[in-house]
């Protein structure tokens, strides 16, 4: 079969997403989805858009959505790019900004899609080690590069990067693009969006999947200088000129405009996160300081594989990464209070066993 494949198809190492089993009653804390439903206004907007207009192609420039994002983030619509989840926004950023003959830099512990895009677009990269506390130290990125990419808050650690460090990095790197993946920024950490006005090489990527409970709708966006946005649009239109379908555009506008649902939703997750962190701490876990909708935690006396398997046997899914330094950590999505209580109830006898 592979005889028909290109060398590229043979060498790709695709991203493996977290499991999405359709088994009832699972406590699913493995893929950082929001446990609360999206704003009712989003569902109304999608219903209202669901009519004969589906016959037509959607707005290729997503004008209403870009205007809504621009208003919300205090930028101009030509500083906004939208795509099918922030994964697609990131995917378009690679051929737009990163070259095949210049190393890009990203943390050694980070979102595992980054090396996948490098493989797809043949972009060489160097992984910069995170520090002893597993935090990204941007001072270590002061070296020649073809671009810099990191997530803040980082995944899977949840640790945010200080805004002052991001600004220092931008000042030291005026000639290459600095891409900040802010998929989890609404749960903590300071957003780099206000820096966009002063740094034409800064691209900030966000998503509606987490803080706006819309992972199933697939909408992400980037905010940056209009020059960067034009490059992204050129790449996008060379793939598919209609990145977002008509229903997703309608739903996304409503999500961005429902500030009250957004704030309440984020506050609820942050409150549950503190309670869960305290409960894990009481069980003897080392819990990293999280600014995201998940916790990254390990127990000094128990292997991550065993804890994950024990949870799974009780119907509780969490994520774990087979990577150096973090193999014993569990990445636990902040679910509802009831889901988190169930997780703790299952963990207690597992960690108390000799
Ligand atoms: N960036 C990071 C750091 C993530 O963890 C994720 C979610 N897995 C994404 C981007 C992509 O999210 P989405 O495509 O749903 O916007």
From TrEMBL:
Pathway in which the depicted protein is active: Amino-acid biosynthesis; L-histidine biosynthesis; L-histidine from 5-phospho-alpha-D-ribose 1-diphosphate: step 7/9
Keyword terms of this UniProt record: Amino-acid biosynthesis, Aminotransferase, Histidine biosynthesis, Pyridoxal phosphate, Transferase
Catalytic activity: L-histidinol phosphate + 2-oxoglutarate = 3-(imidazol-4-yl)-2-oxopropyl phosphate + L-glutamate
UniProt organism field: Robbsia betulipollinis
Record-annotated Aminotransferase class I/classII large domain positions: 25-347
Protein known as: Histidinol-phosphate aminotransferase
GO molecular function, one term: histidinol-phosphate transaminase activity
The keyword Transferase is assigned to this record: yes
Subunit annotation: Homodimer.
């Amino acid at each position: 079969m592979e005889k028909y494949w290109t060398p590229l198809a043979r060498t790709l190492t695709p991203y493996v997403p977290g499991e999405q089993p359709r088994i009832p009653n699972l406590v699913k804390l493995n893929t950082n989805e929001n446990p609360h439903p999206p704003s009712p206004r989003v569902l109304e907007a999608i219903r209202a858009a669901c009519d004969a207009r589906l016959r037509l192609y959607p707005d290729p420039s997503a004008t209403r959505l870009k205007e809504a994002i621009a208003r919300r983030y205090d930028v101009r619509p030509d500083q906004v790019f939208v795509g099918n989840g922030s994964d697609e926004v990131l995917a378009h950023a690679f051929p737009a900004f990163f070259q095949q003959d210049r190393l890009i830099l990203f943390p050694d512990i980070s979102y595992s899609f980054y090396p996948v895009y490098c493989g797809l677009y043949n972009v060489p990269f160097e992984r910069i080690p995170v520090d002893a506390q597993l935090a990204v130290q941007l001072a270590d990125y002061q070296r020649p590069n073809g671009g810099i990419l990191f997530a803040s808050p980082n995944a899977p650690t949840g640790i945010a990067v200080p805004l002052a460090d991001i600004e220092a990095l931008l000042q030291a790197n005026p000639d290459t693009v600095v891409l900040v993946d802010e998929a989890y920024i609404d749960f903590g950490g300071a957003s780099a969006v206000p820096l966009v006005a002063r740094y034409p090489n800064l691209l900030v990527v966000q998503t509606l999947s987490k803080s706006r409970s819309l992972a199933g709708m697939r909408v992400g966006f980037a905010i940056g200088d209009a020059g960067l946005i034009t490059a992204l649009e050129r790449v996008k239109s060379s793939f598919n000129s209609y990145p977002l379908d008509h229903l997703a555009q309608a739903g996304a506008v409503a999500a961005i405009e429902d500030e009250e649902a957004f704030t309440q939703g984020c506050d609820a997750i942050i409150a549950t996160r503190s309670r869960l962190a305290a409960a894990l701490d009481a069980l003897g876990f080392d819990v990293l300081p999280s600014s995201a909708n998940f916790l990254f935690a390990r127990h000094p006396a128990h292997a991550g594989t065993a804890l994950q398997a024990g949870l799974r046997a009780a119907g509780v899914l969490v994520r774990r990464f087979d990577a150096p330094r973090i193999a014993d950590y569990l990445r636990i999505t902040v679910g509802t209070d009831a889901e988190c209580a169930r997780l703790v109830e299952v963990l207690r006898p597992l960690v108390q066993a000799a």
